[in-house]
Amino acid sequence: MCRFCNSVFTTPNVVNFIKDFVPPTTSTRTIKGIAVWAADTDGASRMTMDTDSTRTKQKAVDVPSSGCGKSGQTTKLSTLGQTVEFTIKSPVPLAVGQFIFWEDNTAKNFQTQVANAANFPTNSVSCTCGSYTWAATMKKVSATQLSVVMPAAAVGATSQVICAAGDVSCKVREWSQGSTAVTAMTATCYACDNGGAACTKTKSTTTDNTANDLGVAKNVAGVTFTFTQNGAAATTPDVLKVRDVKYQPHTKAAIGRFYYKPSTAMPLYATSTIAYTFGSQTFGSGAICQVMTSSGTAPSGTTSDLVRTCAISGSVVTVTMAKDSTANFHVQIVGMNAWAATAGTVTGTVSNFGNAVQTAGTASATNVHTALSVVGTTATSCNDVSAVTTTVTLARSLVNVMDVGMLAFTITPQAYDWGVNDYAFISFPTYYNPNVGDMLRCSLYDTKTKADSERLYCAMAWDYTLQVWGPATA
Amino acid sequence: MNKFAAAGNFGVGLTNSTIWASRSWLNEFKVVADGTTGVWGGKKPIDVTSVSMGTAVSPRSTVDIVVDFVLPKSSSTADSNYVAVQLPFQWGGVAKWMDGTAAPAMSLQLGTKSTTTPVKTTYKTVKGTTGMVSGCHAVFTLDAAATKMAEEGIYRLTIGGVATAENGASAAQMNLGSLVISVGKTTAGGLGYSSAQLFNSLVA
Lengths: 474, 204
Prior knowledge:
The structure holds 2 protein chains of 2 kinds.
Chain A: E1 36-39, E2 45-48, E3 61-62, E4 68-69, E5 73-76, E6 79-90, E7 94-95, E8 99-104, E9 118-119, E10 125-129, E11 132-142, E12 145-149, E13 161-163, E14 166-177, E15 185-192, H1 201-205, E16 215-218, E17 224-231, E18 241-248, E19 257-263, E20 273-278, E21 288-295, E22 298-303, E23 307-313, E24 316-321, E25 330-334, E26 346-352, E27 355-359, E28 391-396, E29 407-412, E30 422-427, E31 442-446, E32 451-456, E33 458-462, E34 465-469
Parallel strand pairs in A: 3-16, 5-17
Antiparallel strand pairs in A: 1-2, 4-6, 6-14, 7-13, 8-12, 8-15, 9-11, 10-11, 10-14, 11-12, 15-16, 15-17, 18-19, 19-25, 20-24, 20-26, 21-22, 21-25, 23-24, 26-27, 28-29, 30-34, 31-32, 33-34
Chain B: E1 9-16, H1 17-23, E2 28-33, E3 47-52, E4 62-70, E5 82-86, H2 95-99, E6 105-113, E7 121-126, E8 128-133, E9 137-142, E10 154-163, H3 168-171, E11 178-185, E12 189-197
């Protein structure tokens, strides 16, 4: 007899209820940890160990009305890197390893370029329930079925529950679509336990405690959403552009800095990369890439936190985003090869989650395909002063690392006298400090009297480059 | 300057404000090569025995800094002919050194310890002048005829008329600063360096 419930075991199966017991949510929908000991009146004992699972599974619950979504989305044909969202309102908590499915009822097929039975790109799907967000693994199970598996529990978690009952939203941030046009689909959703990787609508509603009984949130035929995948691609496709491309000093063969600002309407995420190729202009192995906040059409002196890395290789500069953000920064390269003034154009690629999603358009009136400047007389061209026979000699008392000292440049101008309205720009090798030195002093040295004749105002124009204002008395 | 293996180039360009503002063009440009050295010349840190200022210091005033130090044995600092000092950035008033509205007065003394008890150190002036001065740095250069500095020598460097901080925010941090002193040969570069903390010496 049951020692607690006073029932008599007259049949092989006896149902005993434990009052007010709320079973925990588990991945398998079965529970362990309850030991039952019973004895017949003739003394024969029977015992179920606490390591055994319950013989019946927790019952699935219907997905509520309007529980599948989200309706009203339209994706564009022949467009990469689109963002779409799929949702489910789960009537019960979802546990580790359980699956959520969105299924096309109308044979329109999900027109993503992800192959059947393949996962979407790693980290490209972000799911949220309540305040919890995770990088989800979404699989295109078949042409008509998408699934997301619930993640592992946090270290130290005492429950297998990942999401409490309620809304789950999964954003697919790299939905790339081809040119196949289909009419709007009607789709539905459901959730299955951790054995339900191959779950179906039917299996989500099966309640026979067999291997086909997989439902957690049961599919309901009338609970659907619409999803349209025939939006026309823009007649003027959004392409990768570039702004503020500039070399300073804008003089062929001069040592200076190069900067630009990426321009793209493509959403950028924490791992997105933007790679530009600047014609045949190379930057050199000693080039230093800096990412600065923008100050109008030029970089400011403040480092931006939007970019994690900036790599230079040949003519290619690749920045990797540090966070989800628009490209609101300038990239500045110092310590680079001199400006070659070779004809060329800027091309580039945006990659999200490892896949190219946007490239620079071909040259046209509508697609900015910036041409690199060459020697000329227009305002946008650079000049060439290589024929000017300026002489410069250098004497320095700086000898060793950490020395305090002086650099004396003896300059013999050839083109113009250097006067009150003039500047000198002196670029330093990059083994000097970026600001050259704290509170450095610039003086004009009179070679006749062999003494400083005038204190000159000077300041860093940008890292490694000192700007000296001309003398007032010249 | 940092350590480097291969000398680089300076680029010197001249332009005028009009053409620069409109086109960023230079009127002339010339590359000039840097020197070929750039090594770490220090062998041992200088032993700074004290830094003192003697009194509370007010912003927008001046103070004399006295640094006592010893050149360690086997530090390759023998025959050094300059002592350089770098002041902390909080001492923003030293920008006056940069624009010429103020200048430090530097002096160096060589100490000798008595052989009697109690031991006393007496100091004798080493001839020299204040050489290069920028906003944060000053260099005292020994006269050519003066006896060069020696290892195990006891020295006292006095930097007079050091401008203090220009504002309250920096003034509140003046006592947190450190100064760097270095010695070396004008022909061979720095040979010994040391960082000396100010916060034990200054009532801000």
